[in-house]
Amino acid sequence: MKRIVFFLFAATMLSACRVSPEAELEMRVENTLAQMTLDEKISVIHAQSKFSSPGVPRLGVPELWTMDGPHGVRPETLWDEWASALWTSDSCTAYPVLTCLAASWDKELSGLYGRSVGEEARYRKKNVLLGPGLNIYRTPLCGRNFEYMGEDPFLAGKMSVPYIQGIQSNNVAACVKHFALNNQEFKRHRYNVNIDDRTLYEIYLPAFRMAVQEGGAWSVMSSYNLYQNQWVSHNRRLLTEILKDEWGFDGAVLSDWGAVHETDGAAQSGLDLEFGTGTNGVDVNIENAYDYYYLAKPYKEKILSGELPESDLDEKVRRVLRLNFRTQLGGNWGSMCSPEHFAHCRKIGSEGVVLLKNEGSVLPMRADAGKIVVLGENAIRPMVVGGSSSSLKTKYEITVLEGIRNAYPEAEVIYERAYQGEPKVTGNYNYSLYDLTDPRSDEKLLEDALVAVKDADYVIFVGGLNKNKQQDCEGRDRLSYDLPYGQNEVISALATVRPDMIYVNMSGTAVAMPFADKVASIVQAWYLGSETGNALADVLTGKVNPSGKLPFTFPYMMEDGPVRTPAQYPGIEGEDDMWQVDYSEGIYVGYRWYEANNIKPRFPFGFGLSYTTFEYGQMKASSKTMKERLTIQVPVTNTGKVAGAEVVQLYIQDVEASVDRPVKELKGFEKIYLEPGQTKTVEFVIDQSSLSFFDAARHEWVAEPGEFKALVAASSEDVRGEVLFTLK
Ligand code: BGC
User: Fold this and answer.
1) Beta bridge partners of 579
2) Contact at 8 Å (CB) between 129 and 173?
3) Looking at 68, 90, 152, 256, which residue is catalytic?
4) What parts of the chain have a pLDDT lower than 70?
5) Binding pocket residue ranges, ligand 1, CB within 6 Å
6) Bridge partners, 99 (sequence order)
């Protein structure tokens, strides 16, 4: 008996002494740091190759391998070059672009995406996957909008959280990029953002804050541009004061590739790990010895001479080790190109597709269609390979034409090009060249298409942008809001003959659609990755009821939007090719702008149609006054004949405020699946953060007592109910 009591006592004591995994991690970090020489410390804070930094072999610390991100795991490059290593074992699952994920408004699906792509990164032995991209959609011309999550900070932030947690559940770090204010590609290394603090805190930072605080991201990438006339990688306010001190970020800050410009700034800003120096990230790649990185020998010399303190170096090493160790844990070896991953890709794609117009219920397509004519270059064009750093090599890519043929094995499916864009499909890599050249003239292409569509049951035109340079691609912005390659005219001509035409738009950003009134149906199809054709066909045929909603506004014209003057975009050129960009629209970005100025867009933020209909019942609030929080409930019923999903959106309006505030702001969303006739009650919790604005003078968030409205809506334009309440 005595023995048993003793054992129980000992066991209790032991478990009381057991340290938490966090404390254990910190002990390992401190232990390792204490044993490192100055040279070893310097070695781990800069790259040794295009995508890796060395570990400390003497102490058993492995190398740290990063890789793009964010839509799949980029194929291997040569050690010191961007060019493909020409491996044959690095084809991945290419997932839909992040705008598509944002358009699903489905947090669970975002977790699935993160877990799935994280498994692929793990399999490829990557410690860090370079994504998600969380820069706010400010202008439709930004070349990288497709890699980001739209115009609203709440949507982008909340959607990023499960994605990050999903990746990291594989012990692969997410790297949230590009922090911060990288909202255009034009002169991305040479523009300075002039912005007030309120706008910074309300619009451009919240998604990053949520990614760090709620998502627990283990790394962050500093952006190329300047802020306060200082490159972001040298900017102490952003990297240390805000990210680390205010938000408590304990991970590592990686520079974007080639974003560091000198030693002192990089050493003192809070940057932890230097990558890509000697390259502009796109086409310049000067010969560069890694020892001469700004955080390599030059930094060491400054420490030895006493010019810079070693304590800053230690802090960087700590963070790099912490990142490294976090990604060495777990017994999961990941998996690559599994049937499950392709199934995830198809599901995410079909859930993110947005039905924008469906006159005469042309869609869903009938199962007994006999003849289908598919038109447009994007129906046959491989897209996964485009876009620059997010370019992928996938095991297979189902084009739209193939997807329609798969869905209609019995039907006659005819393809006509109708227009020709840039027929050469180029990616970052020499393995990926396709040539889609068609010898016919533009007139002949259109003529042949006009003949083909005459007696078809369905005519589907697949156009849009194509991830080529200036068409949704890193490094260059678009040159115009219009579709390229004369598509406006071609689509209009075809729609005159076939007004029942279905227009499928591929893009990760808004485009002008002057032909919108002439076609029966419009489908926003983003870039859907490996399963593009199948995912799209699922929606067109009604196998999947569309439930995506726009994560950004489609204005009629660029001029309707918030960014209107050269000073706002692309900026004003100063000395030495440095540009000043004024964010003078302030907090009025996206729907906040259109609503405040009473400008009706073609398709509003949060909008998307379904093959069924949803009725919103009476809204109920837990109380008429609020102290800490308030609960809002709304029953939603599927009143149509088919099952479907609805994204229920909660917006808050500050009825009486001492400062200028947007008409309303998104503060909650839930996606619910309903069988025909089924009702579910959606619940939202409103707290002080939902009501606050950022008071720059006091440097704090303020919720002013007074009246607010909670608005439940099916889109930013389609408010279905409201309750008034008072904050005490
Ligand atoms: C891009 C990053 C990318 C990095 C590595 C840079 O040019 O801006 O998004 O992760 O290259 O490829």
Assistant:
1) 191, 573
2) yes
3) 256
4) 1-17, 282-283, 287-288, 427-433
5) 68-69, 130, 177, 256-257, 281, 389
6) none
